[in-house]
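chain below, 468 aa
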Amino acid sequence: MNNLIISLIERTYSFLWGDLFVIPLPGGSLGLSLLVILLIPTGIWFTLRTRFLPIRLFPDMLRAMLEKKGAKGGSLSSLQSLIVSTATRVGMGNLVGVVAAISAGGAGAVFWMWLTAIIGSSTAFVEATLAQLHKEPDPLYGGYRGGPAYYMHHFLEKRSHGAPRRYHLLPVLFALSGLICWCGISQVISNSVASAFSNAFHIPPLTTTVILVILAAVIVLRKNATVRVLDVLVPIMAGCYFVMTVFLILVNFDQLPGVFARIFSEAFGLRQAAAGGFGAVLMNGVKRGLFSNEAGSGSAPCAAAAAESDHPAAVGLVQALGVFIDTIIICSCTAMIILLVPPEVTAGLTGMDLMQEAMRYHVGGFGVVFIALILWLFSFSTFIGILFYARSNVAYLFGDNWLSQTAYKVLALVMLFIGGLAAYTFVWDLGDVGVGLMTVFNIAILYPMSKEALAALRHYEESRERNR
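prediction:
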């Protein structure tokens, strides 16, 4: 029975993330997975429909982020909703994912990560705005709740023209996929942290895992501690990582032109022998960019729905900015740390070994410790953030009661503990399957519902013009 389940998960993973089509190219090939086929055209379409929102309205994104409304009665401000979504976006993908992209696709993969972020931010705007338009009061935690399960339900209920129903199939499948995904991610988080602390401090994985679980339990089992902790944790961790990167760039400033030259030349396969062909460069950058910024997966709208704002589109703009912060800033920090190191220093290394060796080159033994601590902060904030997301999905599936909310938190804590001790488990693949299915279900509903978000955008821009 176990082998059958594992086989089913692996087949589903391959269907979602594996290459459905392979296009032969000079010097390599271009493999297209289902998720890439869905997300890239969707991002391009919404970028066109919003008239290049990520570039045209970037100043509005910054203004919306600083909007003062909210943070009362359990609701969040736009900035707090951004902090929650950034906590989950800025995670292991920004470290391990970027390292993997550069290892497999060369420096040119960074360019395609940047491009993916620009078009992905339009998708993030649409899904976050829909979450605001369809949010509901949260009787347990106060404020609001919502996300794809809720806007899917409202859309299908309106289309059915029948009596109100407690459930619809598509939002149920989305909510279940989200809860499965976040349990899988919990295991990956603790395993990565335990491994990094073992390498940096020689602390046994069991010790690291027990401390991690106790700290997480103290926060997530309290009613409203999550947002207060993330308000402090996320700016500190992102700020420290950014400042460290700026310091390293300044120290190695003379190498910067060469780094950008590598990124742009390898982006188009001009150094195929080193970069593994245009297809490898492009797809590694695109896949890691999509995985890191989560645009289109339906995760961040769970935070966007909790915000209180003067206009739904303003929250959408803030979440679009979150994609920039994740990929253009944080992922680029990792890329610069690696690419400012002579290639021979990190030759043959992959994953966190490559990252830690790069930091060792820059700042000695402190670099290994720094990366271990940053990974811990990134991972810990991700765990807290995904349990904030889970609130809405648990409520949709099981109703408004503390029993189901607490039961899921305990399950996630158990997964966090198991992950710190196990070298590998199929639940990790289950996490990838979960986020893949979330994306499929979410994208399916974004197209027919996008006109609501686009109408909100037009109203926002007209209101802005009238108030000038």
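Residues 272-276 have pLDDT under 50 and may be disordered. The first helix runs from residue 2 to 17.
thats it, cya
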